[in-house]
Amino acid sequence: MRKLIIALALTTMLGAAGAAASALPHVGARFTGPTSAKTVNGFGDKVTFVAGAKSLKSFSFGTLGCFGYGTFPVGVDPYGTSLAQLRQTIPMTSQGVFSVTSAKASWSGGDDTTKLKVTVNGQFKSSTTATGTISIIETGANGGTCGPAKMTFTVKLGNT
């Protein structure tokens, strides 16, 4: 009886460890998916990044900022021309949780004096799917700030 209990306990622990390990992405895998940002001219916003062993790299997403972006010509993807790229990696725990606070981002959507600080929080639900939130605080040339503008995202393995 004791051997059976030990065998069941070990099996349960190994199953739990396997489930936790499966929530980590493969190193070098690219993830892409939609955000909850409003569709403009029929174009939706996307987030993309590459998974590392302990961090997310090349994290980028489209944003129109929170001060406003101007006009949106018909047929032009405003998110594709207004990309924010984090300048640093996003740390990730061994449980697949990732987070960074007030990270500086380069942004092709504003002028050179406009600055973005980005907070990202999320978690891998499996080795192929993650969900999270992005919060943006924008600072203009005159020192005025707006935000945080928030959006959620769901990404999947590959270029979807």
Summarize the structure in words.
This protein is mainly beta and 160 residues long. The protein has one domain (22-157). The chain is built from 1 helix and 9 strands. It has one helix spanning 2-21; strands at 30-34, 46-51, 55-62, 83-86, 90-91, 97-107, 115-126, 129-139, 145-157. It has an 8-stranded antiparallel beta barrel. β8 (129-139) and β9 (145-157) form a beta hairpin.
Fold blueprint:
Blueprint: H1 2-21, E1 30-34, E2 46-51, E3 55-62, E4 83-86, E5 90-91, E6 97-107, E7 115-126, E8 129-139, E9 145-157
Antiparallel strand pairs: 1-2, 1-9, 2-3, 3-4, 3-5, 4-6, 6-7, 7-8, 8-9
Key attributes of the depicted protein:
single chain; 160 residues; mainly beta; eight-stranded antiparallel barrel; 1 helix; 9 strands; 12% helix; globular
The fraction of residues in strands falls at over 45%
- Note poorly predicted spans: 6-21
Which term fits the overall shape? globular
Could you state the order of secondary-structure elements as H and E? HEEEEEEEEE
Strand order of the largest sheet: 1-2-3-4-6-7-8-9
Task: Provide the gyration radius in Å.
Answer: 19 Å
- How many helix segments? 1
Distance between the termini: 51 Å
Q: Percent helix among the residues?
A: 10-25%
Mean pLDDT: 83
Number of domains: 1
Major sheet description: 8 strands, antiparallel, barrel
Instruction: Write down how many β-strands occur, each being a DSSP E stretch of 2 or more residues.
Output: 9
Alpha-beta content class: mainly beta
